[in-house]
Fold this sequence. Notes:
Blueprint: E1 19-24, H1 29-40, E2 45-53, H2 58-69, E3 74-79, E4 82-84, E5 87-89, E6 93-99, E7 103-110, H3 118-135, E8 144-150, H4 157-165, E9 173-177, E10 189-191, E11 194-196, E12 200-207, E13 211-216, E14 219-232, E15 237-241, E16 244-245, H5 246-254, H6 263-268, E17 271-275, E18 278-282, E19 284-287, E20 293-295, E21 304-310, H7 313-328, E22 331-339, H8 340-348, H9 352-361, E23 364-369, E24 372-374, E25 377-379, E26 383-389
Parallel strand pairs: 2-3, 8-9, 22-23
Antiparallel strand pairs: 1-6, 2-6, 3-10, 4-5, 4-23, 7-12, 8-12, 9-24, 10-11, 13-26, 14-15, 14-21, 15-16, 15-20, 17-18, 17-21, 19-20, 22-26, 24-25
Helix pairs in contact: 1-2
Amino acid sequence: MLPLAKSHYRDQALPDEPLRVAHTFAKDPELAAQYLASRLLHPDLEGVLFFCSAEHDLPALAMALEAHLGGVKLCGCTTAGELGSDGYSRGSIVAVGFDRRAFALDYRLIRDLDRFNLLDAQRITDRLMEHCTRSGLAPLKGHTFAMTLLDGLSTCEEQVLLTLTSVLAGIPHFGGSAGDDNRLTGTHVYGEGAFHDRAAVVLMVNTALDFEVFSTHHLRPSGEKLVVTAADQEQRRVMELNAEPAALEYARLVGCTLEELNPEVFARHPLAVRLHDKTYVRAIQSVNPDLSLSFYCAVETGIVLTAMQASDLLTDLDREIADIEGRLGPAECILGCDCFLRRLELEQEGRQQAAGEFYRQRRILGFNTYGEHYSGLHLNQTFSGVYIGRSRGDH
């Protein structure tokens, strides 16, 4: 599909509110959906992206959303925490409405991750690109980004992201894996009027506004290394580190007992694999009865894991955002996928209120994830997102 000629692109003033935000703590699905509709519906609404706590009655919420926002392009996922108008939240729903005068967007639901293949990926991206091109807002190249939301317990992220990246034709991409408030029992994405597991959503957005897709983390190598000497790649499980039971060797590394290993320890003492002078965190999910360790990202026999130590999380993120602001000007919004382990780290330090205020001031909206997506990679303990600048007349 060729882009439209330049003369075919719309030349019109941008709306005062190209993005509208609704944030509700209502537990009753009907009340929550009514509130979202009252805040977001308007004649130029192009679509809605939302993030909701898994504490909600998901089938009832889906019915209420369909009743009050039916006919609107609506997609989203469950979370391990929400990033809304008040900063850090739990038990809530955060929704973002896109004005069609500033954004063209469309999404596709992948219903069966296990069978997703290159032909499926090509078909999906072709349809999404066609919608963005036909909108006439801006050229496809340089004005389009993609976002993925995947079932965070599917263990399919690497395969799906690699397949999608091969057909995105250079369109920048980020996203996150759905959470379930750290219960690790069921994560869902929403599309086509219902919540789904073993599924994913691919959202494509075209806009004349300046934007930049980015990813950052605050972790630095500490020096000590662990070799994965036995692993089950399909299950993301490591049985041995340095030829010792994985949990025992990891406990030795971090200086605690086996009984003390928990998500808070995993957040403070992450491991990472180094590729081409870059480090990619491989976060631990849990300790198993056989003393193996389950991970959130791909692991395999023979890889070398480097112990990492944290610098200041908020300082790192502030520096990254400030750099982008220097290039694009003030943000209209930052859509962010923030690893739930980063949130745990801040909570352990008693800094969640300060972090929430920082996120609110920086206009960050999104959710805490079970893994982040960036340029076809599945990551842990990062902040990955898109910085959307204001229109030039608003600077």
